[in-house]
Specification:
The protein is an alpha/beta fold and 461 residues long. The protein is built from 21 helices and 18 strands. The chain folds into three domains: 122 residues, Rossmann fold; 166 residues, Rossmann fold, CATH 3.40.50; 154 residues, Helicase, Ruva Protein, domain 3. InterPro entries: AAA+_ATPase (IPR003593), AAA_lid_NorR (IPR058031), CheY-like_superfamily (IPR011006), Homeodomain-like_sf (IPR009057), HTH_Fis (IPR002197), P-loop_NTPase (IPR027417), Sig_transdc_resp-reg_receiver (IPR001789), Sigma_54_int (IPR002078).
Length: 461
């Protein structure tokens, strides 16, 4: 049985987290400050520490330094209520450190308590991924994760609806991963197949079924046996071919083109479209009976402008991917994060990724910073946003907090101070809201601010 020390001054959070840890089967002890934690560490040895980033008597990073000085081998999970600084903090830690963002879920705690998984995760990259592929901690993303968790326990067909670039294919992969089925995920774009080849692509064909059919071929339904079949852009399938798809969904059997023997198939069908329900009905691009077969469990994927809290995290993730691919060490400047957070992103995550890639290409090779002065949006993305009549998001709202990249040579106090002042600025000085966003108590925030006010003017600038 593992022994866990939970260090956090938020009593409500500590109570909930302690119950989760106990339910998993661990002995848990709690501390509300660095001083209390040091007392526990002097008397006991712990397998794992869950450590808040900001505590009443100092930063959680100070306690990490203390643990290292004692040469303890305990795994550490740093807890923060501020997703945008999580990637930046990774540069200050090592493979002993993992990361969670409040509010935490039982599955998150189970994952990090697995030492091998936690260590591998920290070594590969600092980004938590839901179901191995989804990144984000905004309320909209948490709702999406919950829906995926629930549908994964069933074999229901899923229809994904969302704007172009919002990540429908990644969500389909997340559903497949969460289902833990024995088969593979097989994907096909229904809008990219020639009309006379759709039957062969979906159901396969026998040798000699038509000119050019020199061998037998299995269709995607067979290839996805005991797995997931992803039908992307399903509303672009010709209407006259849809009855054949309906029969396969109803009977769970298919017949290859040119064949006579029915073949049983067993796979979950996840389909996707960037059309709205109103457009599907008005333009008659999908038969009603097909819709109800495909949309047993419809999921609306939020556009990026509906999850602004994830923009800093996704931006850092794309930079990390490029750094990993090209063996570089670029970082986004504070000004770049501000520009990115102010944009409405009509092209969604795809547009953000391409914007980061462009900045990476244009970066000065003699520096390690990526600057973004303006964002060049695709005319197609802008037209789509206009068609959907979605107003641009206002710059720097209270829901968006600028990231605080860690610079080499900065002290823990400087990093913490910068984070607090930037958060306060983003919410127009609302201390209660700032404390909530930072994941600390209002009392702790006031204590920090009082300490800063007593510093010299040069230190507080």
């Amino acid at each position: 049985m593992k022994t866990v020390l939970l260090v956090d001054d938020d009593h409500e959070f500590t109570t909930i987290a302690a119950r989760i840890i106990e339910f998993i089967g661990c002995d848990v002890y709690t501390a509300g400050s660095i001083g209390e934690a040091k007392q526990w560490l002097a008397d006991m040895r712990f397998d794992h520490l869950f450590l808040d980033f900001m505590l009443p008597d100092g930063s959680g990073l100070h306690l990490i330094d203390h643990i290292r000085s004692l040469k303890l081998t305990a795994q550490i999970t740093l807890i923060t209520g501020h997703p945008s600084v999580k990637a930046a903090l990774a540069s200050m830690c090592d493979e002993q450190i993992n990361y969670l963002t409040k509010p935490i879920e039982a599955d998150d705690v189970k994952r990090v308590l697995n030492t091998k998984t936690a260590t591998h995760h920290a070594q590969s990259d600092p980004f938590e991924r839901h179901f191995g592929c989804l990144i984000g901690h905004s309320p909209a993303m948490k709702k999406l994760v919950t829906m995926i968790e629930r549908v994964a326990k069933t074999n229901a067909n899923v229809l994904l609806m969302g704007e172009s670039g919002s990540g429908k294919e990644v969500v389909a992969q997340a559903i497949h991963n969460a289902s833990q089925c024995s088969g593979e995920q097989v994907s096909v774009n229904c809008g990219a197949i020639a009309k006379d080849l759709i039957g062969s692509e979906l159901f396969g064909h026998e040798k000699g079924a038509f000119t050019g059919a020199i061998n037998q071929k299995k269709g995607v339904f067979e290839l996805a046996q005991n797995g997931t079949l992803f039908l992307d852009e399903v509303t672009e399938m010709p209407i006259e071919m849809q009855p054949n798809l309906l029969r396969a969904l109803e009977t769970q059997t298919i017949t290859r083109v040119g064949g006579a023997k029915p073949i049983e198939v067993n796979c979950r069908v996840v389909s996707a479209t960037n059309r709205t329900l109103a457009e599907i009905a008005q333009k008659n691009v999908l038969r009603e009976d097909i819709y109800f077969r495909l949309a047993v469990f419809p999921i609306e994927i939020p556009p990026l402008r509906a999850r602004p809290q994830d923009i800093p995290l996704l931006s850092e993730f794309f930079v990390h991917q490029l750094n990993d691919e090209y063996k570089t060490q670029y970082q986004l400047t504070e000004q770049a994060h501000t520009v990115l957070s102010a944009h409405s992103w009509p092209g969604n995550i795809r547009e953000l990724k391409h914007c980061i890639h462009r900045a990476f290409i244009m970066a000065d090779p003699d520096t390690t910073t990526l600057t973004i002065d303006e964002i060049v949006s695709s005319p197609f993305a802008s037209a789509q946003a206009s068609d959907n009549q979605v107003p641009p998001r206002a710059p720097a709202t209270s829901a968006t907090t600028p990231s605080a990249p860690v610079k080499v040579g900065e002290t823990i106090e400087e990093v913490e101070r910068k984070l607090i002042y930037q958060t306060l600025e983003s919410v127009d000085g609302n201390k209660t809201l700032a404390a909530k966003m930072l994941g600390i108590s209002t009392k702790t925030l006031y204590n920090r601010l009082n300490a800063y006010e007593q510093s010299t003017p040069e230190e507080t600038k």
